[in-house]
Every structure is written in C-alpha cells, then in structure tokens.
Amino acid sequence: MTTNSPSEKRLEELREQAWKEGVVAGKGVDVAGGPIPRKPGYYGEPVVKPPVWTWEVPLYFFFGGMAGMSAVIASGAVIFHHLDLARTAMWVASIAGAILSPILLIMDLGRPHLFLNMLRVFKHRSAMSMGAWILSAFGACAVPGLIALELHAHQIFPGTLDQLLRVAAGIFICAAAIFGTLLATYTGVLIGATAIPAWFLHRTLLPIHFGTAGLGSAAAALELLGHRIPTLNFIGFYAAGIETALLIWLSVDKHGAADRAIHEHASGWLIRIGEILNGPLALVLRFFGLVPFAAVSFLIGALVSRVGWIAVGKVSGSDPESVFAAERY
Amino acid sequence: MIGEGIRSTNQRKHSYVRDHVEVGFFTDPSVCIGCKACEVACKEWNEVPDDGFTWSGNSYDNTGHLGASTWRHVMFLEQDRAKGNQIAGPMSLDEDPFRWVFLSDVCKHCEEAGCLEACPTGSIVRTEVGSVLVQNDVCNGCGYCVVSCPFGVIDRRPSPLPDAGGAFKCTFCYDRQKSGLVPACAKVCPTESIVFGRLDDLRARATERVQQLQQSGYNDAQLYDPTETSVRGIHAFFLILGEPEAYGLPPKPQIPTIYLKSAWTSAFATAIASIIATLLAFAFFS
Questions:
Q1: Residue B286's domain spans which residues?
Q2: What number is the average pLDDT over the span B52-75?
Q3: B104 neighbourhood in chain A, CB within 8 Å
C-alpha cells in the first residue's frame, strides 16, 4: 500500500479537515471520540430493508383501486337500472383491472416470466398471495360480466337467451364488485403488514385511504367519461370527505421519529400534496359545482398519494432510528 | 467448548437433515478476530457474486450489510468502552477506554419467519433442520419478503448480477447439510466464534458463555435471541457486548403478520362502507 492510494488520501483529507473544523461531515472512520458525528445504529446502516418496488407499484395501486370500485358502481348501476353507466363502469373496471393492473404487477416482478408461480399456493397470511388471487378472481368476473352486459345491451340474442345473459351479467358484476372492494383495499393491508415502521404504524388508515381513493377515482373517471349525474357527485363528496378526515388523522396521529418519513422529507410532501388534492381541494371544487376540476384534482391526488406512500416506505425503511423508535414505542 | 478440536460440532459429519434435528448457529463476538473467512467461505461455496468493491470508511468493514449477495457480514464496532477487564491503551491507565468488537451477522432463521409467511409463491420453505430456505427456481421476485423481514436480511438481487431478479439470503448451507457437512462459515471459522450444532445444545452453551463472560468482567455481555416477541426466537443467535442497536439489530423484532388482523378489519370495514355509500348514492341521488 502506497501513500498515494485513494484510502490513504482520504485519510489525509479527513485529518486535515478535522484539524481545521473539529468536525468532519461525510464518509469516514465513525469512531467513539472521533471527529465525525456518530450515526445511529451500526454506522447508520438500515436495520430493515427498504422496498425494492419501482414506479409500477403505485400505478398498480391507482388503477387497481379505480377498477375495483368501478365494479362497485357498476353493480349499483345494474341494480338501479342505469344501463349506460353500468357499461362504462364495467369498461373501466375491465381495462384498468383485467389489463393494466396485471401488466403493471407482472412488470414489477424481478422475474416476470414466473408470474404464474403466484397461483401455485393460496396463503391467507400473505397479503401478496391474497392480492394475486383477488386480482385473478376480479378479472375472471369483470370480463365475463362486461361481455354479458354488452351482449345484452346490444340485444344480440333473442328472448330467453337474452334474459339469461342479463342474469349472468348481474351475477358476474356483483361478484366483481365484491372482489373489487377487496382489490381496492388489500393494497393497504399489503404495505400495512410489513416491517417498515411508517407503514405498519398506519395499517388501520392505509386500507381506508386506498379503498376510498379507489372509490373516488372510479367516480371521477366516470364523470370525466361523460356521466355527470348526482349519484357520482354524491360518491365524489363522500370520498373527498373521507380523504379530508384522513388528512387530519394523519397530521394528528404522529409517532415521532418512528414515522417521521411521513411528516418530513420529500416523501412526506408527496403524501400531503396528494391528500390535499383528493381531500379538501376536491371537496371545495365539488361544493362550487366545478365537477370536472374536482374529478381531475381527485385523480391526481389519488395517484400522487400512492407514489408518496411508496416513497415514504423507502425513506422509513432506510432510517435505522425509525425502526428503533417504533420498537421502543 | 473452545479447544474441542476435531471433536467439535463444527468439524463432525452429521445426519441432522435425515433425523430432522433442529440446528442453528451461535455466534460469539468475544472470540471473533474479524478475519472474514466466513464471508469468503460463504461466497465461495454458494457461488455468491461480488456486490461491489467500495471503501466505506467504517472501520475495517467494507461489506456494509447483509443482502442478496452478502449472506455473512462481519461487523466492526469501535466503541468507547473497555472490553471486559482489559486495560485500554498501550501506555497508561489514563487513556480513553476503547474496544474493537467483531461480530459475524447472518440470516436469523426465525422461529416465526416474516419472509416465509409473506412469500406468495411458496418459494420460501422451512427445512427439516428448522432453517428457512429460498428455492431460487420458484421465486418470481415479487419483493414482498424484502419488506417483511424484521432484520433486513433478505433482498432482491439487482441486474446485471447472475440470477438477478430473485430474492436471496443465507441458505444455512442446506446442500452441504444434506450430505452431512457443516455450513461453510462455521466449518472455516478459525476461532469457533461461529458454532454450528443442535439448537438445544447451542442455547445451553450460549447461556453458559454469557455467564462466564460476565464473571470475567464483561458486564454488558448478553444473549440476543428475541424469544419474548412475536418472532419467538431465532435459530442463529448472538452473544452481544452492549446494546443490540449498536449492531443494527432491532431491539424488539416483530413478525409483520401480527399487523394483519387490524389491517384486514380496516379493509373489510372500508369495503362495506364503500358498498353502502354507493347504494345510498343510487337510492337517493338518481
């Protein structure tokens, strides 16, 4: 080892800086009594692993939530004889839930060609396994439901066969609605039941947020697709109201260092901006009758807050102090 | 015990897999010399790729942390405490106390394993010897085990490394054990800081060692084996000097499945509320 090696040079730099300033920032020998401020834990290394998920996952949460709750609106529309609304809602449910969601979920895998291994076991104690089955069941109900509904709407078959199609559409759509509510909410369980402090500390809030944001997104999407009806407006008010309440909940229910990723950093701002867009702002816009603006605001908010929650997981998982604080809590 | 030589459990052939005997690791930093032979043996035997050659500046540890391509990790702690009754400093008693502690970290093979519960493909299984094993050919790289491990052990291997995309961690040398061989790290450890053996024997041995150290002045020696939490104990436990936090070990690790009940309750409540709100909207606003 010569004195010209990079590590020797670095040591020289550290010595000089410590001599001049007393304290050295950055990488170096983190030793008791040394010039460099001590980092928490073991040299500040993460205690748990931050999520490896990339942009596909928040987008999947967004489309999955919208698709699932669209099926719920479709089932209401079927029950109350709004055929046009039911058809649009089932198109949204099928495209977002049976095409976009699986594609995004598969793209996020480290080995996409092995996706089907998800369906070789059924584990009720794994939210990921439940999610794979819920998504499959949803697709298996939504697509036949849409086909039956379209065949019925266009009167392709005569008489009894058409009546059968109508009944089949009703059954498939109601089944899709039930799996749809789970598709929209299980994502909250998925990240709530992990070792990431900022996530598991808010495991009760997360399914409410994801499910309600899904319902509001479905209503907003349908409104933007031309269904400006009081029914969807009411659902929009309901979703924005709940999201406003969740924003207040989140700002009151603080856990100090354990969930500081939600209240500090860029990740915290993503959640706040998202929650303001799909909470109070959407509510106010709707109150003044600016329905399309409220719908756009809600959709952007729902997407941004999902991106924010994944970002929070990355920050919180990389922060050893948040893990220690959560366990001492 | 120390000095057993050829009779030690680290050197004997065994039939634990055939006999379904629970085995584990006991890792003792008080005799570790920080040679990193365990890291090297692990990489060699399991053909684990390198994961970068970076200078961390953290004592002699340039490995950093356990991960997809690091299944043994020797930690180097520099602490302002005396090691047992040692006299710190070469010249006088006035010198600041200082100790250098080495500990070889590894997958804990939890009694209740978060990664195993989270795995949606059934790729992660419990073996005959009680260890937790990832079956590489089944794993589709969903990444859920990564956030479900309370110890931050398992990780997804990034491209362009060989076998990228899958989740990896210590296999407890399951392939070696099936042939009656001791895991590579324990076999190679020159000071028996890593001891391999029957779980019940190891627990007794660890308790004895903690007492022995405390009697010789290591007042902060303790066993790290979280049996009181939902993890219900680990199969690779450690003797530690000082607090677990200093080793990056969680003081009270919990298996994330304990959060399922409240999260699913909230999900079902939201599902029902959404259906009711939608039906009300149709009934009264259309």
A1: 255-286
A2: 90
A3: none
Kindly state the tokens that stand for A249: 């909940």
Is the sign of the CA dihedral B192, B55, A261, A68 positive or negative? negative
pLDDT of residue A1: 42
Distance CA(A293)–CA(A258), nearest Å, equals: 36
Nearest residue to B196 via CA among B12, B4, B6: B12
Do B34 and B55 share a domain, yes or no? yes
Please tell me the distance from the alpha carbon of residue B37 to that of residue B72, in angstroms, as a whole number. 10
Same domain, B197 and B96: yes
A173 in a domain, yes or no? yes
What pLDDT sits at residue A15? 74
> Does residue B28 sit in the same domain as residue B100?
yes
Judge if B14 and B85 occupy the same domain.
Answer: yes
Domains in chain B, number: 2
Let me know if residue A50 belongs to a domain: no
Q: Do A52 and B119 touch (CB under 8 A)?
A: no
pLDDT digits over A286-296, tens only? 999 999 999 99
pLDDT higher for B218 or B273? B273
Percentage of chain B modeled with pLDDT above 90: 81
For position B209, which CATH number holds?
3.30.70.20
Q: Which residues of A touch B286 (CB under 8 A)?
A: 80, 82, 229-231
Query: H helices within A193-278, ranges in order?
Result: 197-200, 205-224, 230-252, 260-263, 265-276
Is residue A34 assigned to a domain?
Answer: no
Residue A182: list chain B partners with CB under 8 A: 267, 271
pLDDT at A116 over 80: yes
With respect to residue B268, please indicate whether it lies within any of the assigned structural domains: yes
Count CB neighbours of A163 within 10 A: 12
User: Could you write out the DSSP letters of every residue in B150-211?
Assistant: TT---EEPPTTSTTTTSEE---TTHHHHHTTPPPHHHHH-TT-SEEEEEHHHHHHHHHHHHH
Q: Please report whether residue A26 resides in a domain.
A: no
Q: How many residues does chain A have?
A: 329
Q: Are residues B282 and B228 in the same domain?
A: no
Q: Which pLDDT score, from 0 to 100, does residue A319 have?
A: 95
- pLDDT of A2 higher than 80: no
Question: From CA B101, how far away is CA A60, in angstroms rounded?
Answer: 46
Question: Which residue range(s) make up the domain with A118?
Answer: 56-328
CATH code assigned at A285: 1.20.1630.10
Interface test with B, best of A8, A69, A186, A203 (most B CBs within 10 A): A203
Nearest partner of B120 among A57, A126, A53, judged by Cα: A126
What number of C-beta contacts closer than 8 Å exist between A and B? 280
Best probe of the A interface among B55, B56, B264, B272, by most A CBs < 10 A, is B264
CB B249 within 8 A of CB B75: no
Record: contact B267-A194, CB cut-off 8 A = no
Question: What confidence tier does A10 reach under pLDDT thresholds 50, 70, 90?
Answer: confident
B225 CA: distance to closest CA in chain A (Å): 15
Are both B76 and B22 inside the same structural domain? yes
